[in-house]
Amino acid sequence: YLGQLDNPNTLKRVELRIAGLSSDDVPVPTGLELISEVGNELYFTVDTGSGDYQLWRTDGTPFGTQIVTGLSLLPVKIIDLNGRAYIMQYNSSSARYSLWAVNDAINGVTQVQNTIEFADSLFRREPQSFVAGADALYFISDSRVYQVQGTVFSTIAGVSSAQQLAASTND
User: Fold this and answer.
1) pLDDT above 70 for 120
2) Which of 8, 165, 152 is nearest to 76 (CA)?
3) CB atoms within 10 A of CB 43
4) pLDDT value of position 157
5) Which helix (H) or strand (E) segment is 169 a member of?
6) Is residue 165 a contact partner of residue 131, using CB atoms and an 8 Å limit?
7) Residue of 79, 74, 112 whose CA lies nearest to 91
8) Strand-pair category, 53-58 with 66-71
9) CA–CA separation, 150 vs 74, rounded Å?
10) β-strand partners of 129
């Protein structure tokens, strides 16, 4: 069921409501865009209509439903790595993608950085074929396979391994 909610067209047809304590429904803000299950919570993004976005999370209760942070870049994907949320965002000014980790300590997000000092932490092509390992997240972008651990990433393989990862995730 949750897999169908990744489709923006489906989201526009579904009015999601979160059960309230008084058995009344608490409506989710308008502009709902992405939704993804992360651990025991749902994370979703809201388009505020003013060019900004918000990242929300809920455990299904009014007290457990809150804005995580405002986002100034276009959110394109929410990813789960063993209960930790990551969000891929797109910067239309630079035509680059960046990966951010939800950071509960600051009630916000922290950009995932390249392990190579002074190296670019942005991607030209939209990252895809996300695979969660035991303690790392793997994905393909710019014909390379990347590994994310916490808030750092590194390149682990080139084109042929990227094609193998893409093929294995399409099975």
Assistant:
1) no
2) 8
3) 23
4) 66
5) helix 159-169
6) yes
7) 74
8) antiparallel
9) 22
10) none
Phi then psi dihedrals of residue 6, to 5 deg: -75, -15
* Amino acid identity, position 32: L
Give the SS3 label for residue 150: coil
Strands 84-91 and 74-81: antiparallel
| pTM for the full predicted model | 0.73
Q: Which two tokens stand for residue 53?
A: 């976005």
Per the DSSP assignment, residues forming a β-bridge with 26 are 18
Query: How many angstroms separate the Cα of 75 from the Cα of each of 49, 91, 119?
Result: 14, 9, 23
CB 97 within 8 A of CB 125: yes
13, pLDDT greater than 80? no
Q: Which residues pair with 124 in a beta bridge?
A: none
Structure tokens at 59: 């455990």
Closest to 128 measured CA to CA, from 111, 151, 144: 144
Query: Sign of the C-alpha dihedral, residues 91, 96, 99, 103?
Result: negative
CB 100 within 8 Å of CB 112: yes
Phi, psi of 19 (to 5 degrees): -65, 130
Nearest to 156 by CA among 134, 171, 136: 136
Structure token digits, residue 131: 């695979």
Q: What integer pLDDT is reported at residue 118 of this predicted model? A: 47
